[in-house]
Design brief:
The structure holds three protein chains of three kinds.
Chain A: E1 2-11, E2 14-23, E3 28-32, H1 39-47, E4 54-59, E5 63-66, H2 77-87, H3 92-105, H4 121-133, E6 139-143, H5 151-166, E7 170-174, H6 178-184, E8 187-192, E9 195-201, H7 202-207, H8 212-218
Parallel strand pairs in A: 3-7, 3-8, 5-6, 6-7
Antiparallel strand pairs in A: 1-2, 1-4, 8-9
Helix pairs in contact in A: 2-3, 2-4, 3-4
Chain B: H1 2-17, E1 21-26, H2 27-32, H3 34-46, E2 50-55, H4 57-64, E3 71-74, H5 77-85, E4 89-104, H6 118-128, E5 132-134, H7 140-151, E6 162-164, H8 169-179, E7 182-186, H9 187-193, E8 200-203, E9 211-219, H10 229-240, H11 242-250, H12 253-256, E10 262-266
Parallel strand pairs in B: 1-2, 1-3, 5-6, 5-7
Antiparallel strand pairs in B: 3-9, 4-7, 4-8, 4-9, 4-10
Chain C: H1 3-35, H2 41-51, H3 55-66, H4 81-117, H5 122-131, H6 134-149, H7 153-159, H8 169-178, H9 182-208
Helix pairs in contact in C: 1-4, 1-6, 2-4, 3-4, 3-7, 4-5, 4-6, 4-7, 6-9, 8-9
Classes of the chains: A alpha/beta, B alpha/beta, C mainly alpha.
Amino acid sequence: MIAAEGLEKRFPGFTLRVPALKAAPGEILAVLGPSGSGKSTLLMLLSGLLSPDGGTITREGPAVYLDQHPYLLERSVLENAAFGLRLKGVPRARAREVALFWLSRVGLKALAPRPARGLSGGERVRLALARALATEPKTLLLDEPTANLDPANVARVEALIREEKARGRAIVLVTHNLFQAKRLADRALFLLGGEVVEEGPAPSFFDSPEDPRTRAFLSGEMVW
Amino acid sequence: MRRLLFSLMLSLGLALAASPLRLATTTSVHDSGLLDAILPGFTAETGIPVQVIAVGTGQALAIAGRGDADAVLVHAPALEAVFLQEGKGVLHACLAKNRFLIVGPPEDPAGVRWETNVLNALRKIYLKGALFVSRGDRSGTHKKELELWQAAGLDPQGKRWYLESGSGMGATLTLASEKDAYTLTDLGTFLFLREKVRLVALFDRDDPRMLNQYSYMVVNPERFPWVHFEGAKKLRAYLLRPEVQEKIGAYLKDRFGQSLFEPLFGRCVIPVP
Amino acid sequence: MNELVEITLRSLFVSGSATLLAALFGLPLGLWLGARARPQRLAASLLYAGMGLPPVVVGLFFYFLLSRSGPLGSLGLLYTVPGMILAESVLAFPLIAGFAMAGVAAKAEPVRRLVRSLGGSELQVHLTLLAESRRVVVAALAAGFGAVISEVGAVTLVGGDIRHATRVLTTAVVIETRKGELERAAALGAVLLGVTLLITAILVVFGEREAR
């Protein structure tokens, strides 16, 4: 579970304000909005990589943030997958064992001994997912995980997200792909210029949005 | 391999010991190989290794003038006189002489080869506007060339046919050869390169203006107490020894049919006050 | 002993020692500056300007410093191999520190995000950054070594190009060129290029090796 209240982060010329936000275990919260609306900033705040200027964040168990362009270490695929566990002091043999399990779940087991630098875009994202999941986080914070991926890889990553949801993880998914949000989300939040325009359960959010700006955004009209 | 490394360490050790005699000299002397022929005898006799630093005459005197060399072997009488007057050097000795030549393309477009006076030869080059390469590096040879232009009452600076190489004598001869140009050279360097360049000696006469005199000076120990004065004095005595002087005169004489360095036995042909 | 081998070994010894000496101070400085969260503009400007230090000017500076009439004259380091190593290390220092800084700075933010988001400490951020900097370090060392083994201005002024004592490949090339022995000069130049290429290749192969 992850929740925030009265969250505020100020930058020169831009302020992000989120009155309330919550993703319960087994729930996917989709964060929507145009570029520059503060989506990534929100995720960084939730993950603790940025500290807010005001408000509180409640995390139940560890939350792992997945970068839009995940950094892969100059090591093997296996070592990358085991990295989070090694940071927590898990012995190398045990960490590799767990990492191998997660690699097989994301379909990369065969590439385990290869250098991570040689992976394709889809493989990189899946490896980053395996690396995050190996630490068994209660919350996943995903920053546009399928941007720039081909349809086959998008389908794979979405399937993985669904599985992790089914295992009871709380997931915050930043995306600008409306169809993906509709396919995956339980709740949705629309950010515009640092302000939350609308937030609510997915069915009502997508089918009968209250705010005219949300309607315009969902219908594909320019609102910014 | 171990022996190579050993030798390297040895040479490093020698450099560290700082006991060797340091002789600052001009590139023309060094590059002729003369010192490699006569210094080993000195080292064998006295046990003093000699380290040769080959630079332009101006730089050699500058280095020695700060006490960074123990002795100098140079060829610029006017500068030597200043060095002595400033109290930086002592025990001046004239060792050898040779001469400067004007060399150029065999076609000799300015007709230099018919002149008996070097100043008239330069005047012909000037009037013809024939290509001329100057060292332009303030070396002894460059200094001599500037003296000659001045004595002829001419100023070639800025003329389109007057090229400055800014490099050593060998490179300058190569450049003159490529450009079919005239240049002033010392005898030794020209003899070494004669077969590699398309240049011939066009003015090669016993003109007192074209004398090139090599002298040895010891750096003044009263001014620079750390210098290797005893060693420098011993080297002076060794170089002036008749049999060593003969050896200097005989150096490569067989190969070129004339002496690269004619021994002076200490008697200067250009006075150094 | 073959003089060419002697000169080549001395070149390697001088350049190698100078690179190591410069790396001793330059790598920690560069890695530290690069890992800082805020860009260190003044330090970066100084290092980048230092990369353009003309070797002749550094050589002159060291000549006056080490000259018997200079402040460190009593050490007797002018015209010696240790003196050359000192001057060369000053030339290599900004290159090594600058390359290390730029390379690490490019990785600092993504590595910090990765380690912190996986629950790692600030110390682990730096340890990971260090482990990820192997290729950066190799590039920095190769840049420093390549610069000093191929420069001639400083070694000539500080070393004096003394046969069997301070002559190195670059100064030997200068002498042969000066003498008009262009073929020999070119051959020495080829040896210089070959040696530089070999050392750089060894460094790169070493750096490209994937960590287990």
